Amino acid sequence: MSKENLILIEPLCAHYQVEMSLFSELQDFGIIEIITIEDSYFIHEDRINVVEKVVRIQKDLDINLEGVDTVLNLLDKINDLQTQLNTAKNKLRLYED
Amino acid sequence: MAFIDYYKILGIEKKSTQSDIKKAYRKLARKYHPDLNPNDKEAEKKFQEINEANEVLSDTENRKKYDKYGKDWKHADEFDKAQQQRQQSRKGYQGQSSSNFSESEYSDFFESMFGGRGNRGGNVQFKGQDFHAELHLDLKDVYETHKRTLTVNGKNIRLTIPSGVINGQIIRIKGHGGEGLNGGPKGDLILKFSIANHTDFKRDKDNLYATADIDLFTALLGGEITINTFKGKVKLKVKPETQSGTKVKLKGKGFPVYKKEGKFGDLYITYNVKLPTKLSEKEKELFNELAKLRSK
Q: pLDDT (tens digit, 9 = 90+) per residue, B160-196?
């Protein structure tokens, strides 16, 4: 399997000063997917932002992973609603102008 | 710089304990954290303030300086050293002054307070907020790679939109989001494509689907018809005795494959045999004859 666009978890643990178990837990919550290649563990580079967000929320706000997962889900919902609102506003503007 | 009342910012009293400070900070941070308030400049500013207040008040030494010197607390070291120097002068010490603080040293002091040099774990650099935008395009627009200028938060961004972009596809344009906090990198622009199809073609990934009407005689005897593709009109040979609903594939006449230049999907044409109406007496007679021939 190609390692293109994949990032090794081990240096990420050192960088964010977190345990490997955090990544396993994030996988259990369905937040990331751990990819195993030749006994090494990777995540897709697209998920780095989410991992960063989780680490920040956990550290800054002292929230456990269940809470972080809830926060992420609610943020997704807010984002969807915001997009819908923007689309609706744009459509309304067509009639207002 | 104007005096900032850190106690007021955290909504606590001067006599508050470290536990009160922590509690107040957590409560406000949960409310104003940039991750929980995407694209909210006010919340971002507020979080910066409460973070700053917490940085100072949660550190016993800094809190002492802040309580002692009030609005001038940032120059506490300078005052203390000046005071020491005065005491030394009174005692008759001369020598070169080693405590002339330059502007850059103030800055160092400030940075050490707020982590500009990154020596305090709590002062995290934040990547700027990601901006989300939706770009409405027509299917015809994405048949060819083209450039487009978008205005996001007052800034013009010139984008190359590759041919073959799919409806609902999301692309991330790095560094075109909100400003980072504490020297963090800029956020990204996350662009979602909304592609409306006003053509007669149905698109499924890279393949296109369309129907073509053929008359009864072409269907029975074969012939040639002209059909529309995205690139223009092409001639298509119809085999004799073609049934209605027959599907033919025109290789490479479909939609461009995303980011694979020169590669195209296929176009599938489904024949729809149109039966003649308003038959003349002569035609009816001839069809009757045909019917008799077929029944023999």
A: 888 999 888 888 888 888 777 777 888 888 888 889 8
Sign of CA dihedral A71, A73, A74, A78: positive
Residues of A within 8 A of B29 (CB-CB) are 60-61
Q: Is A8 on the interface with B (CB under 8 A)?
A: no
Question: A-B interface: how many C-beta pairs under 8 angstroms?
Answer: 35
CATH 1.10.10.10 holds for B6-94+101-114: no
Q: Region B148-157: what's the mean pLDDT?
A: 77
Tell me which residue in A49, A63, A83 faces B132 most closely, judged by beta carbons. A83
In chain A, the residue whose alpha carbon lies closest to the alpha carbon of B122 is A60
**Topology classification of domain B131-196:** HSP40/DNAj peptide-binding domain (2.60.260)
Residues in chain A: 97
Model-level pTM? 0.45
Count of Cβ atoms closer than 10 Å to residue B217 Cβ: 11
Considering the segment(s) A6-96 as one domain, its CATH architecture is Orthogonal Bundle (1.10)
CATH architecture of B202-295: Sandwich (2.60)
Subunit contact B35:A53, Cβ cutoff 8 A: yes
**Looking at this predicted complex, what is its ipTM?**
0.70
Amino acid (1-letter code) at residue B157: I
Please tell me the distance from the alpha carbon of residue B148 to that of residue B56, in angstroms, as a whole number: 47
